Amino acid sequence: MNAEPQKSERRWAELEKALAHVETWLAPEVERVARGFEGGQAGAFHGLVMGPDEARRALSDERRSRIPVDRAAAAKDLPEQTRLATLCGADAFDACVLLLALAPEVSSRFGRIYAFLQDDLARTRPTFDLVLNLIARDPAERLALRRRFAPDAPLIAERMIQTWGEPGGHWLTTQITLDAQILRLLTGDSGIDERLAGFVRLAPGTARAGTDDDSAAAAGASAALVRARRVWFDGPDPFAKRRAAAEAARLAGMPLIEIDETAIPADRPPAQIAALLVREAALRDAALFLDGLEDEDSREPCPFCTAFLAEAERKGAIAFLAGKQAWLRDGWAARGLARVAVPRPDASARQAIWTTSLAAHDLGLTADQIHVLARRYRLTGRQIETAAAVAAAAEPDARPDAASPNAAYRRVVAATRAQTGQRIGALAARRPPRARWEDLILPEDALRQLRELCRRVELRDSVLSRWGERHRAGSARGVHALFAGSSGTGKTMAAEIVAGELGLDLFRISLPNTVSKYIGETEKNLDRIFDAAEDSNAILFFDEADAILGKRSEVRDSHDRYANLEISYLLQRMEEFDGVSILASNLRANIDDAFTRRLAFVIHFPFPDAAHRRRIWEGAWPDPDRRPRDVDLDRLASQFKLSGGSISNIAVAASFLAAEREQDVATGDVVTALRREFQKLGKPAAEQELRDSLTAGVA
């Protein structure tokens, strides 16, 4: 026999046994009322008119004693009474009330009997008056039992019953019905409360942690439950936090009820929703998981979150919260929460997720390509799954290898980069990495350091995870570098090349625009930048870092004190940042030593010497075939001590002058461009002097 019918049959047998008590209570009451008008004219109009004899009986009925109801026996036979007693504080009297309210929901004959007894055809649910008539032993107890329907009594406070009455009606005529979910419980329906539909689901009971980090977070949550019943999962990956919560619930032997805070209707009373959720968890012996708290600008909890935490604490519910809202980050301890970190998946976990996601969408990347994706892009599980889906739906490009793994790889990379950077893009300027290694003219040691920086970024997961160095590395999770050198020496170009080599986006942040004269505003600006960058998979390029990174000064006034606080705060946020950041400074000597100790690289960009300037001049022209042939580049490089940025400006300006004439670049174009550049630099030079310097020695 099927298990579901067997379950229903058992529940019906239990209900029949329980409802037999109701029949026992009703029988003498029905006989008493019937005897009063049997055979009389009033009987035909019962419920519509009250005759004199009935009025006399009503006066005497209030003083009579009744046969005592065996409340304990009825409570024992009520399905789920033990659970209701434990969770809601329901005693034997409450069980009798629940039985009376249950009866018409199971059989309509009870509704008709209630209408007959209450002298009103419309009252098919028990009223307070009928309940007290049936259960109270005498008038004194009847008076005392009125207290059991007060707002703070279990029946009302725990929402086991719902009540309603006619406007202006008497209290005794208030009708009672079972709460919808209590009715489901008593009748054996295992469905979720319909009032929670749309933002609640019962998680599958077979969930397992997806990665070692998920397992560690779940174990940490299990340990935290010993000291706190509410746990906050702190981390960037919503999927990982959900998996960790499901695993922690599984370890505790409990199902998990997932709540999406963003989907709760705004017009629903927060306290009511919170009470229904906590009760649902209690009825199922389940843990709660509140998700959707990802808006990092939320400094105060929403009304629902406040009500939820209060109700969970009041009832001792096990609750997991996940999110990055500021009120969680800054006040989790004060709110009685235990914090458990759920880190971003490491390279090996990302590789496993990539392999599964790409296979699900039939994207045939090679093992090496998957390895590069996992190593290069520090994505969450959800971002990886979304990138695979987007890449699978993308139109193939028009290149000859459109059907090859390389074409699929290009689509996956494009989809991957589209998953990140949206939030940081509102706070910083994206710089497309156009420069190439051959464009960068630097001493060999500086170039070697830049390549070492790229390798550090690519191999950090291997060293910090697989080599077991994570715990000893401390704050070395991110990679932070300082590019120091005067303006125009190639710092921005080098940042572009590093971003291009790593396949990452580059975002430029102007620190002078970040620093505010208002106390505390600089820290808020830095918060917004670093919080947005956490899931960006981009390189942060802090230009003109001298605006904030100058040596910390002796505190002489409040301005010095707050300036030092800003520097310290930037140090703190950089240490916490798990990504790649590059700071550019024109004055290395002005950088605080505390900063250099926290940097993985300090790369010096020297002012180019004559040999380097010659190479820069050679490659600076937009169209090498149109560069001037009558200009001695060796003399140009040795005669004019210009930075690479200035040389590039001159070459571009001269090319525009030539384009206006629709000819190749001539000496005069270079002379004019040189003169304009010197004017910008505040070093005016005579045109004839510049021309002589350029053409001297040219055959």
From TrEMBL:
The keyword Ion transport does not apply. Keywords: ATP-binding, Nucleotide-binding. Residues 477-609 form the AAA+ ATPase domain. The keyword Oxidoreductase does not apply. GO terms for molecular function: ATP binding; ATP hydrolysis activity. Belongs to the AAA ATPase family. This is ATP-binding protein. It comes from Methylobacterium currus. The lineage of its organism: Bacteria, Pseudomonadati, Pseudomonadota, Alphaproteobacteria, Hyphomicrobiales.
